[in-house]
Amino acid sequence: MDLPTPPTLAKIDKISPSFYNAGLLCKAKAAWQKFGVRQSMPASTGSILGSCLHAVVERGNRGGLSPGREGIEQAKIAFDAEAKLRFSEAHPLIRAKFASPEKIPFYFQRRARAVVLAVQVSTEGEPRSPSPPQGDPAPRAFGGRSSRLVEQSFTSRDGLITGRIDLLDSGVGKVTDYKSGHASKNVPSGLADTEVRQLRLYIHLALENGYNITRATIVRGDGNECEIQISASQAADEAQAARALMEQFNGLVSGGCSFSSLANPSAKNCAGCPCIPFCEPFWKTAQPDWEELCGTNAEGEISETKDISLAGATLKTLTLDCRQGSTLRGQLTIEQIPLAWLSLGSSVPALGSAVRIVLAARSTSAPQIRVLQVDRIKSTTIWNLSIAPPQQ
Fold first, then answer.
1. What gap in Å lies between CA 76 and CA 116, rounded to an integer?
2. Which of 182, 192, 343, 383 is the most exposed place for a label (fewest CB within 10 A)?
């Protein structure tokens, strides 16, 4: 595949929790999140299934599921329909790796969890109706207005902070955010710092819009919940920090900063970052000991290629002279790459081509082993450097 072009920078007129969290680590990552062409990068399969969970839970919160077995089937159908839509719009590499959305790893497990959660929330918000969302009854009223707001966008009074809250229930004084993944094992409290900041901004937005709310909850796809109390002063302090970051970002953009100059590469900051394929500061800075956090990422020149045919498909093995990245330097072998994965760009990488292998998998867990493999679950990608975009 050909490398995407880094985004063109512009000032922002408001800041969201996701931009704020990204910008605290790396303003280049935040810029990509805001201005990048998302279709040029393969989304993770986890994000596709996460969108399906949100769609089904939203329907449940809006009262669009019938009681009992009928509601369960409605939730399954809604999940499958959203998955089909997301899959049809996905990057061609995703469709090359998986014949259908049902082939995505953990599809049916994630669907089952989403259905359970959607049916559960559907019974929590009275009154409920068996009709679909467009036929919803009027939601409960609290203080002369709706007490349950679903997938509602809010803006602070000064217009500088914005956010879309999954569920705001003023009847119980709580905002809820749904996450499709598990809590990190390295977070004993159950909430990551990014999640706490997000919830504080949600509480700030609720208070700014006249909702006296101090409770905030993360509900995960497996049903686990974690609730915290957030004071008005904590929410206001977080909001002020977000405004300061927005001012700093806009100042850098006004001063002519490039995408690369905004980058802040480190093993911690680059872990899970979607910008790795085209972020030059990452490749110039990354070291082999970053591999544990950032994954196996290698850049170099192809010194040998071998083809085999298996079940009618051509698989390529590349020998790469790795010169930089978050893995060992020197000769690496990347085994059995489907030709279909390599045929999505302007040209198939060949002998002498410079490439980047992002999120490869090791054939064993031993870091000194120089044989790598591609992995559908890890979303391994191969990028052709022979046709590199201009840096911004």
1. 10
2. 182
> DSSP string covering 218-232, please?
EEETTS-EEEEE--H
Kindly list the structural domains of the chain, giving each domain's residue range(s) and its CATH number in brackets, ordered by start: 42-133 (no CATH), 141-238 (3.90.320.10), 267-387 (2.40.50)
Report which residue type is found at 168: L
pTM for this entry: 0.89
**Among 223, 46, 38, 60, which residue's Cα sits nearest to residue 133?**
60
How far apart are alpha carbons 44 and 266 in whole angstroms? 22
Q: CA of 141: how far to CAs of 101, 125, 154, 165, 340, in Å?
A: 39, 12, 19, 18, 55
DSSP 3-state assignment of 347? Answer: coil
* C-alpha angle 139-145-147 in degrees, rounded to nearest 5: 55
Q: Is 288 helix (H, G, I), strand (E, B) or coil?
A: helix
Mean pLDDT of successive 10-residue stretches along the chain, which has 392 residues: 92 98 98 92 92 96 94 97 96 94 95 95 61 41 67 97 97 95 75 96 98 96 93 98 98 97 97 95 97 95 94 92 96 93 90 95 76 87 74 53
- CA neighbor of 199 nearest in space, from 226, 172, 222, 221: 226
| C-alpha distance from residue 215 to each of 143, 175, 223 (Å) | 18, 6, 18
Cα gap 320→266, rounded to integer Å: 24
C-alpha to C-alpha distance for 130 and 139, rounded to whole angstroms: 14
Q: How far apart are CA 301 and CA 323, in angstroms?
A: 8
CA distance 66 to 351: 59
